[in-house]
Specification:
Blueprint: E1 2-7, E2 16-21, E3 30-40, H1 42-48, E4 63-64, E5 68-76, E6 88-92, E7 103-107, E8 111-113, H2 120-123, H3 126-140, E9 147-151, H4 156-167, E10 171-176, H5 181-186, E11 190-193, H6 199-206, E12 213-216, H7 220-226, E13 236-238, E14 250-251, H8 258-269, E15 277-282, H9 286-294, E16 301-305
Parallel strand pairs: 9-10, 9-12, 10-11, 12-13, 13-14, 15-16
Antiparallel strand pairs: 1-2, 1-4, 3-5, 3-7, 3-16, 5-6, 6-8
Helix pairs in contact: 3-4, 3-8
């Protein structure tokens, strides 16, 4: 039996629990891994709350929390190509296996080998934040010298976007709360504190002619406040709020395949997509790790280390 942290039904933090379970059996197209590190994301608590459908793989309760992990392959299901037992890998638990656990299953098509020299804690942050950063900037396709606004820059995805944008020689201005300032400015972003100033007015003062692109990670009223600052509304890319299409923008087109994972890993090795990991918790502290992200207090990436 191995330990896992998950939820017994849909709801708030009160439905979370530790439980023991046998190693899951990899289905067709899955690999069983011994988890060494798992990334913590806002998607995790949204899935627990029942606000996102289709990512549970039809698995019964209790379900394990978490969507991304790095570890070592212990077994393979049928029709798995390119991954062998003993490989160090990282990827998505897109078939509902969860990752806040000592062992789990990952979708093989959405899993890649960890390249030599890349720490497991870093690899575990790339499936969600790393590939999202690559996707939004590829979708924008802006030339060197362009200026972007990252609305909600202080989290794992926002800081990944900022670092990758700098590598593409883009000028980055970002919005966030006071507690995020230190980590944001450390990666070279011109910071706008939404708790202390009017974001739209401050951004317009810095870039009077409008932004070449906007990456929105906040959604809702915040998205609608900054969207008019784009020179072209089609260059407003939202990561979490699909209603962006109603104001002329676009929702991020996600690529979660092995090729994009491998690309993200190469960028991380080159230092162009190095995540800002601000906290590493043991599995026993998984409730604290998720609560920090759910409360919106986390800067950068939070990681759970299970081995």
């Amino acid at each position: 039996m191995v330990q896992a942290w998950g939820f017994s039904r849909h709801g708030g933090p009160e439905v979370q629990e530790f439980f023991d379970r046998p190693d899951p059996v990899p289905r067709r197209g899955e690999v069983l891994i011994r988890v060494e590190a798992a990334g913590v994301n806002p998607l995790d608590h949204l899935l627990r709350s029942g606000l996102v459908d289709g990512l549970d793989g039809g698995r019964p309760f209790p379900r394990v929390l978490g969507m991304e992990a790095a570890g070592t392959v212990l077994a393979r299901g049928e029709d798995v190509n390119g991954l062998e037992v003993g490989d160090a890998v990282f990827g998505f638990a897109l078939t509902g296996g969860g990752t806040y656990a000592e062992t789990t299953v990952l979708s093989a098509l959405n899993t890649a080998r960890v390249p030599e020299g890349l720490p497991m804690t870093v690899a575990a942050t790339l499936p969600v934040a790393g590939t999202t950063a690559v996707d939004v900037l590829d979708q924008l396709g802006l030339p060197a010298g362009a200026t972007i606004l990252v609305n909600g820059v202080g989290g794992g995805v926002g800081l990944a976007v900022a670092r990758l944008a700098h590598g593409r020689e883009l000028r980055v201005i970002g919005t966030g709360s006071t507690t995020k300032r230190e980590h944001v400015e450390a990666v070279g972003v011109r910071f706008i504190d939404y708790t202390a100033e009017d974001v739209a007015a401050a951004a317009r003062g810095l870039v009077p002619n409008g932004f070449d692109g906007i990456v929105d990670l906040a959604g809702g009223a915040s998205l609608r406040a900054v969207a008019p600052l784009a020179r072209d509304p089609r260059n407003v890319i939202a990561v979490g709020d699909a209603s962006v299409s109603g104001i002329g923008g676009r929702f991020v087109q996600r690529r979660v395949d092995r090729e994009n994972l491998e690309r993200s890993a190469r960028l991380a090795l080159d230092g162009l997509l190095a995540p800002v990991i601000t906290a590493v918790h043991p599995l026993s502290d998984a409730p604290v790790a998720l609560a920090t992200v759910e409360d919106g207090h986390a800067s950068g990436k939070v990681v759970i280390k299970t081995a």
